[in-house]
Amino acid sequence: AEASAKPAAKAPAKAGTVKDPVCGMDVDPASDRVLKTEHQGKTYYFCSAMCKKNFEANPAKYLPKKEAPGKVALAKDPVCGMDVDPNSDRVLKTEHQGKTYYFCSEMCKKNFEANPGRYLPKKGAPAQASASVKAGTVKDLVCGMDVDPDSDRTLKTEYQGKTYYFCTEMCRERFDANPEKYVHAMAEGDMHGMHTHE
Description:
By secondary structure, this protein is α+β, with helices and mostly antiparallel strands. It contains 9 helices and 12 strands. The chain has helices spanning 2-5, 10-15, 49-57, 59-62, 106-114, 116-119, 126-135, 169-177, 179-189; strands at 18-19, 26-27, 35-39, 42-46, 75-76, 83-84, 92-96, 99-103, 138-139, 146-147, 155-159, 162-166. The strands form 6 sheets. Strands 1-2 form a two-stranded antiparallel sheet. α8 crosses α9. The longest helix has 11 residues, at 179-189. The model is unreliable at 7-13, 67-71, 125-133 and 191-198 (pLDDT under 50).
């Protein structure tokens, strides 16, 4: 009872423990045995070298997904239509007519800034536009997005006599760097409906 009455030495340590993001154990950040690492400006603490190593190899695997609760916080990239998390520190954004627009890549941001009117929805007939695009879409093998092969915004490349389509220059560059990786993944995804256009 006395220990809890005097929050001097032990109580703050207990109250100030933090979770090891890998194993979930409570660790005392003030301890000289605790291991730590910095990630995106935040310090994470670990109970062992193994936990620290696992975290550093793949931080995203262990970080809570609080920032992007699926439906709520996502915004559409107006250029490629991809869902992006406006709270992510990797997302790019720009202001246009008092509104903020978010982008998945530098290429999308540049395309939008060069000609915003081209990417903003036309108030006249948004319904038919999206319907006609959906009908003949193909998958961008890199990000999985539906792209319209007939659109002048769609990028393409030839590989082994076949044409592949991409939503952004970044996706096309990734594909060109390692086509086998994406073609193989597409072949495996066929049975799951990933590949929509021959």
